[in-house]
């Protein structure tokens, strides 16, 4: 029996921890391509997402001297980057940028966008990460060879995912540059139907917030169940992070990984009866993603 039990354990281990080697040839490639960018990369807007991109680029070897950051109220972190050679709010002419990455709020772009025009030459690549802001609007407000992209904040640690679409005026060289800038922060999916961008924004752009909310609420529920607050926060954080890492490394899909936690008649099944019941997470998530998709469409107006 013992033999068969350890056989089962081995099976289970194979199923649960079927870990693929973390290889990221794209990362190596993007490092090379980032080094190949000649000319300035200008980031307009170094708020939360702009800063995440900046951190990702620098970590993956983009020469700080190539970076120009335009940000009216730079955070201390962004100010500190100036000592590494980044040009922050330069007063002298920067000339035409090789790439301009626009990370200002979509609601302000109509006012702030036209001021970016002097940075654009005929070959300048424009990458916009603004939610809801269409290629047509970008073209109208500032022009350029436009790639519309939707990254997410795990970009700061090279574990983001970006969905991108290129306007027809974008040539192969500009496409490769956009791919290198985006891929330096994680995975990239190119699409050719811009209408998908609203749902993309609702799933992966906003998605990290849903996951962080899960950690917050799991901790809160732990406190309600009697745990000290600091222990509950640690358990929730490590559980979300560890589960995310397992999902990342495993070949198994999320549903199988979930089933592997759920012993018949056990504690997880009791919890999932609530979470997967009527008006449970399925319904909540569908409503949340629909609301975000609708908001993205509204931002386009
Ligand atoms: N946060 C996220 O997870 C994601 C955000 N995005 C997109 O990224 C963009 C930025 O979002 P987020 O970082 O959250 O927002 P933030 O408000 O944190 O960042 C925007 C930054 O742009 C600055 N800014 C305002 N005017 C100008 C200007 N004229 N020139 C340069 N910078 C200016 C803002 O300054 P001030 O605050 O003083 O106005 C602010 O620091 C948005 O378009 C959003 O849709 C996309 C994917 C994910
Ligand atoms: O909340 C927002 O509008 C932005 C876009 C996706 C994530 N943050």
TrEMBL record:
<comment type="similarity">
    <text>Belongs to the pyrroline-5-carboxylate reductase family.</text>
</comment>
<keyword id="KW-0560">Oxidoreductase</keyword>
<dbReference type="InterPro" id="IPR036291">
    <property type="entry name" value="NAD(P)-bd_dom_sf"/>
</dbReference>
<comment type="pathway">
    <text>Amino-acid biosynthesis; L-proline biosynthesis; L-proline from L-glutamate 5-semialdehyde: step 1/1.</text>
</comment>
<dbReference type="GO" id="GO:0005737">
    <property type="term" value="C:cytoplasm"/>
</dbReference>
<feature type="binding site">
    <location>
        <begin position="103"/>
        <end position="106"/>
    </location>
    <ligand>
        <name>NADP(+)</name>
    </ligand>
</feature>
<dbReference type="GO" id="GO:0055129">
    <property type="term" value="P:L-proline biosynthetic process"/>
</dbReference>
<feature type="domain" description="Pyrroline-5-carboxylate reductase catalytic N-terminal">
    <location>
        <begin position="43"/>
        <end position="132"/>
    </location>
</feature>
<dbReference type="InterPro" id="IPR028939">
    <property type="entry name" value="P5C_Rdtase_cat_N"/>
</dbReference>
<dbReference type="Pfam" id="PF14748">
    <property type="entry name" value="P5CR_dimer"/>
</dbReference>
<keyword id="KW-0028">Amino-acid biosynthesis</keyword>
<dbReference type="InterPro" id="IPR000304">
    <property type="entry name" value="Pyrroline-COOH_reductase"/>
</dbReference>
<dbReference type="Pfam" id="PF03807">
    <property type="entry name" value="F420_oxidored"/>
</dbReference>
<keyword id="KW-0963">Cytoplasm</keyword>
<protein>
    <recommendedName>
        <fullName>Pyrroline-5-carboxylate reductase</fullName>
        <ecNumber>1.5.1.2</ecNumber>
    </recommendedName>
</protein>
<comment type="function">
    <text>Catalyzes the reduction of 1-pyrroline-5-carboxylate (PCA) to L-proline.</text>
</comment>
<dbReference type="GO" id="GO:0004735">
    <property type="term" value="F:pyrroline-5-carboxylate reductase activity"/>
</dbReference>
<feature type="domain" description="Pyrroline-5-carboxylate reductase dimerisation">
    <location>
        <begin position="194"/>
        <end position="299"/>
    </location>
</feature>
<dbReference type="InterPro" id="IPR008927">
    <property type="entry name" value="6-PGluconate_DH-like_C_sf"/>
</dbReference>
<dbReference type="InterPro" id="IPR029036">
    <property type="entry name" value="P5CR_dimer"/>
</dbReference>
<keyword id="KW-0641">Proline biosynthesis</keyword>
<keyword id="KW-0521">NADP</keyword>
């Amino acid at each position: 029996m013992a033999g068969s039990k350890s056989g089962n354990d081995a099976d289970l281990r194979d199923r649960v921890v079927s870990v693929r080697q973390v290889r990221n040839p794209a990362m190596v490639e993007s490092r090379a391509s980032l080094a190949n960018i000649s000319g300035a990369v200008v980031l307009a807007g170094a708020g939360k997402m702009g800063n995440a991109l900046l951190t990702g680029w620098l970590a993956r070897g983009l020469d700080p001297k190539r970076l120009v950051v335009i940000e009216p109220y730079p955070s201390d972190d962004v100010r500190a980057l100036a000592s590494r050679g980044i040009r922050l709010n330069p007063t002298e002419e920067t000339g035409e940028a090789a790439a301009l990455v626009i990370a200002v709020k979509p609601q302000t772009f109509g006012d702030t966008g036209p001021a970016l025009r002097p940075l654009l030459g005929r070959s300048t690549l424009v990458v916009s990460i603004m939610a809801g802001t269409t290629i047509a609007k970008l073209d109208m407000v500032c022009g350029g060879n436009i790639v519309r992209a939707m990254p997410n904040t795990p970009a700061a640690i090279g574990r983001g995912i970006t969905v991108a679409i290129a306007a027809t005026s974008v040539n192969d060289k500009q496409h490769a540059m956009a791919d290198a800038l985006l891929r330096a922060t994680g995975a990239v999916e190119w699409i050719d139907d811009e209408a998908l961008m609203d749902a993309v924004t609702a799933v992966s752009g906003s998605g990290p917030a849903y996951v962080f909310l899960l950690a917050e609420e799991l901790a809160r529920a732990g406190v309600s169940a009697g745990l000290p607050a600091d222990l509950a926060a640690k358990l929730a954080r490590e559980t979300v992070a560890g589960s995310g890492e397992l999902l990342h490394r495993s070949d198994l899909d999320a549903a199988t990984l979930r089933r592997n936690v759920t012993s018949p008649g056990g504690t997880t099944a009791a919890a999932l009866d609530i979470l997967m019941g009527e008006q449970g997470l399925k319904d909540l998530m569908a409503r949340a993603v629909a609301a975000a998709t609708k908001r993205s469409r509204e931002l386009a107006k």
